[in-house]
Target: Pyridine nucleotide-disulfide oxidoreductase domain-containing protein 2
Amino acid sequence: MERRYTVGGACVTEELIPGYRCSTASLVNSLFRPEIIQDLSLYNFGLEFIPRDPSVISLLPDGQHLMLGKNEEESVKQIQKFSAKDAKNYPIYGRMMGRLAQFLEPLILNTPPDCSPDNASSMKAGLHHLLELPDNDFVNFIEMLSGSARHFLDRWFESEVLKAALTIDGITGVNASPSMPGTAYLMLYHMIGSTETGRPAWGQIRGGMGGLTHALATAAKSFGATIRTEATVTKILVENKRASGVVLEDGEEIRAQAVVSAADPHLTFLKLLESRDLPADFRNAVSNMDFEGVAMKIHLALDRLPDFYGFDNSNPGPQHQGTVLIAPSMDYLENAYTDARHGSPSHRPHIECSIPTVLDPSLAPEGKHLMGIYLQYTPYTLKDATWDEIKESYADKVLDCIEEYAPGFKDSVLARKVYSPKDLEREIGLTGGNLYHGAMSLNQLFSLRPVLGWAKYRTPVNNLFLCGSGAHPGGGVFGVPGRNASQEIVKDFKEGLIETSTVTRG
Model:
């Protein structure tokens, strides 16, 4: 069942501006797992990844820039412009990050252990696994697991532009500054997918991000699935402490042997279930989860490519292919967060711009271009206004910031579509506008996701499963929560824990 007219949640392609096919709430991808692609033969159903090189172009106010991509030698040359020390350390750092990501991968890709007080042995086994790391990697892993991106990177590098470019993967979508604990882990988390030296290899999908979910939907249908759109679920039916189906907005009841929810924990447990269906301690734990989002999305129709300061822009160049980053220093990001902490959108926000039409012209009319802008920190809860009141005027300020790095940029904008955190909640269904279905802090990760004792995709309601980003390991167009949940569901069917009687509709 899908509430909207198209499947995919936040990972969809929509014609938000006439003639322009936008990736609504997710712009690029590196995390989606090759195992899922192979299991479902997604390449046979139209999935195509488009690599980008360079993958990030970090702009500085004076026209200098740092470009990082898949070619390590070229990346080192770019870093050399700012620091010889950093250029030497970058490959070493990259190899270390690769080793730690390889160590973390099985913890991420498998169902986590039950670490409730009655199952302490599972936690001990997990901690024992850490002892397999060499001493230096052990120290680095512990620091990354518990520390901040800023403090971790300060030990490796001195160049502000490099540290800021690497930090982005630790703060994107989270309500935290680079100096807050947990942000170092998220840098490592994003290394589980396709990578370059020391950072994720963010690429795009042909046809926009909806190309991925379209391939998934087509594959599902080929295996016999029935997909219904514009079918809003208003209630999960529970009978004899078992999920037995759902009720749609028009009153239709659909009976099922099991119910699997890809909605976030807040919607699943606090909106779609009666309070009597859940233990009070479980409801209280979900109620105390952090769903505060900090991100906005802006989609722009452009009549020409931006003329970024410091480049030869006479033709499409590398500066147009990757993510253009406006976050020149760590202090810049800290100040942006400070604004949001006091209830205001950042005066100078962290901005990431992608122009997918350079590599996939089919997304816009001939000769035109599409820009997707991700930005933060834009707190869901504002102190002195509402998002409906200020989102358009704030979007104007964002375009002013880009204009400083690309003179004449604002004159190239033909139309736009703005998503505030409130819009992401209302239109996409993300509680609090949170892109990850809940905070990615350590108290909401691994065996604590969504809450302690319920990290194995099952819930206190028998035959009700959670399979979205609110389950382990978290968000990021990953596919792993759904893959892991499906394996647990199959296991329960095989063990006879889910009845296989005929499903009826009422």
In short: The CA atoms of residues 483 and 494 lie 17 Å apart. The radius of gyration is 23 Å. The first strand starts at residue 13 and ends at 17. The first helix runs from residue 34 to 40.
